[in-house]
Amino acid sequence: MELNSNKTVEKDELTGDKLLSDHEYDNIRELDNNLPKWWVWLFIITIVGSLVYPFVIKTQKDEWKNEMATAGASAGQSSVVSAADTIALTDQASLDAGKEIWLKQCKVCHLEGGQGLVGPNMTDNFAIYGCSYYNVLNIITVGAPEKGMISWKTQLSGDQIKKVASFVMTLRGTTPPNPKAPQGEPCK
Ligand code: HEC
Questions:
Q1: What average pLDDT does this structure show over 164-169?
Q2: pLDDT on residue 17
Q3: Residue 3 buriedness (CB in 10 A; 0-12 / 13-18 / 19+)
Q4: Which of 37, 79, 112, 114 has the fewest CB atoms lying closer than 10 Å?
Q5: How confident is the model at residue 76 (pLDDT cuts 50, 70, 90)?
């Protein structure tokens, strides 16, 4: 067919839709239908969405990592306490530093001499969470928040926790006044 020289738009007789002037095969002519507006917009939105998507995924990945880190830390043996931490520090400097932390952070509930008030007595031969240095280190690190003992790992460094736990170990067997009644299991 010949191209429409005067550019008038040819319309299909039946539907009134625009005809494509240069598409004619075997006498069949194509209609030049524009895509519906809603479809075009949906298409554009998917393209824009695909550009934004990688960033959404990235923040979700970060969130997941953070949540896994906190979940792992509160699920018992936190990263601060390692199985190698079985021997309490005994040097005077560490014990002095531990005592300083004790007086500042722990005294309110356990009292200065460790005789116990809100928190249990540290001087008797009983413990709720175990008697070993490792047990003490661990309970200070993870805490027992539902019982009133917070997890100290956000307030104290791993090093400070080791020092205060080592100091706690020195309290056992001492005899401060007005000790709180034993709690937990006897230490072997
Ligand atoms: C707000 C009060 C409070 C403070 C402050 C506090 N504790 Fe406790 N602590 C508790 C309570 C309550 C328990 C007993 C939890 C239970 O009954 O399960 C406890 C338990 C413990 C235990 C385990 C005792 C056992 O019998 O197994 C240790 C060890 C301990 N605390 C050390 C510390 C240290 C070290 C600090 C300071 C860094 C500290 N606590 C600060 C309230 C406190």
A1: 96
A2: 76
A3: exposed
A4: 37
A5: very low
- List Cβ neighbours of 111 (8 Å cut-off, separation of 6 or more): 117, 176
8 A C-beta contact, residue 151 and residue 141:
yes
Instruction: For residue 184, give the ligand 1 atom closest to its CA.
Output: 26
Q: Quick one: CA torsion of 21, 27, 31, 32, rounded to 10 degrees?
A: -30
Summarize pLDDT for 27-60 with one digit per residue, the tens.
887 777 778 899 999 999 999 999 999 888 888 8
- Which residue's CA is the closest to the ligand 1 atom numbered 6? 106
Q: Token digits for 178?
A: 């007005």
**Residue 183 CB partners (closer than 8 Å, separation 6+):** 120, 121, 126, 127, 128
Does residue 111's CB lie within 6 angstroms of at least one atom of ligand 1?
no
Tell me how far the alpha carbon of residue 84 lies from the centroid of ligand 1, in angstroms.
23
pLDDT, residue 77, reads 43
Model confidence pLDDT, tens digit, residues 108-162 = 999 999 999 999 999 999 999 999 999 999 999 999 999 999 999 999 999 999 9
- Kindly report the CA angle at 131 between 125 and 133, in degrees rounded to 5? 130
CB of 116 shorter than 6 A to ligand 1 = no
104 lines ligand 1 (CB under 6 A): no
